Amino acid sequence: MSSHTARSLTIVASLAAGLSAHAGLRVVASVPGSDINVPSSNAADTVTFSGVADPIAGFGVTGLFTAPVADQIDGLYPWSVDFQVTATAPGGASATSPSPWFGDVSFADYPVADAFGGYAGVSGDGTWQLAFDSGVIPPYVAGLREVTYHLLAAAPDVEYLYSDNTGQGHSWSRPYYIAGVSGLGPVDYHTLEFTVDVSGLYHFQSVLATGGDHFTFLYEAAFDDTQPLANLVEYGLGNGFSPFNVPRGTSRFDQLLFAGTTYYWVTSEWQASSPPADFTNTITGPGTVTPAGAGCNPADVAEPHGVLDLADVQAFTAAFVSGDPLADLAPPAGVLDLADVQTFIASFVAGCP
């Protein structure tokens, strides 16, 4: 993590356990599904879950989006953002993925990992009915491959926030969608390498201080700026042309993340003439985001990380007394008070995983 990041870093746990605009949804069950083609609508499938104890609040899909029959002459079609699924629980409650869904406009085979809420704590045990609609015009066909379906339960939101600058002394030729590299570079970028401790749906938002154009990209398992399409799993437009009604200067998307997997969120300048710019990024979801090299939990403030001991107590105490942001562990950000002490004590007692 750079020195810029360290100057403004907070982890905020929501006090509301109920569903909100970005309420936490954690994965509680996963079952492999069958490959499916969706010519336009009325494609159907079923999936059976067993042994699910948690009340279900959301449904998720991972796999590869593809187009078995595609328009490769007049444009990139079918568009994955048109793909929808309605999932009906064994008890009859149903919900439909938002429109648009997924994040790319391409017929390239690329990874999908997304979910949606809409269930008021229903039983997940039994057979779910799935109805698909791609919105495509015949004869074109959309589809999913290597599919896994997921049930999600409600969880308190946790927000990870950091501020930094795109000027980090390195540059790349950034992607401009999931299967194409832009010719507007090389441009500067910032990378956050991180993991999460709870599998579930996470909301990503990046706001450029200038309000100008930028892009963000999410990579899984590895990131190499000389191979910008390798391991790319999602991205967000920050130029005002996102299909998700996102204003210029803001990049926003949702993604299912899984505990034990390393991710890289890249915040990139738009073009070679773009000056370095400050940004504020947030990741909101059901679990704690841990940057590479950070401690095992908020109380792990001293070396060696991964161990909670007297050094952490001394480091926190010194930081709290001196007004160091290192001790700012609880909201409101920028204020050191009893809440920070309580958060430190609770985290220290909880220990490292």
Task: Please describe what this structure looks like.
Mean pLDDT is 87; it is low at 1-21. Helices cover 9% and strands 44% of the residues. A hairpin with a 2-residue loop joins strand 13 and strand 14 (180-181). It folds into three domains: 3-16 and 157-291, Jelly Rolls (Sandwich), CATH 2.60.120.380; 24-154, Sandwich (Jelly Rolls); 310-350, no CATH class. Strands 1, 2, 3, 5, 8, 10, 11, 16, 19 and 21 form a ten-stranded antiparallel β-sheet that branches. The protein is mostly beta strands. The two termini are 22 Å apart.
Features of this protein?
Jelly Rolls, disordered N terminus, 44% strand, globular, mainly beta, 9% helix, 353 residues, 3 helices, 6-stranded antiparallel β-sheet, 10-stranded antiparallel β-sheet, 3 domains, 22 strands
Tell me the domain tally.
3
Proportion of helical residues = under 10%
Classified by CATH, the class of the largest domain is: Mainly Beta
Shape: globular
Order of helices and strands: HEEEEEEEEEEEEEEEEEEEEEEHH
Topology:
Elements: H1 3-7, E1 9-13, E2 24-32, E3 36-38, E4 43-49, E5 56-69, E6 84-88, E7 94-96, E8 110-122, E9 126-133, E10 141-155, E11 158-165, E12 171-172, E13 175-177, E14 180-181, E15 187-196, E16 200-208, E17 214-220, E18 232-237, E19 250-257, E20 263-269, E21 278-285, E22 289-291, H2 310-322, H3 338-350
Antiparallel strand pairs: 1-11, 2-10, 2-16, 3-10, 4-9, 5-8, 5-10, 6-7, 6-9, 11-21, 12-15, 13-14, 15-20, 15-22, 16-19, 16-21, 17-18, 17-20
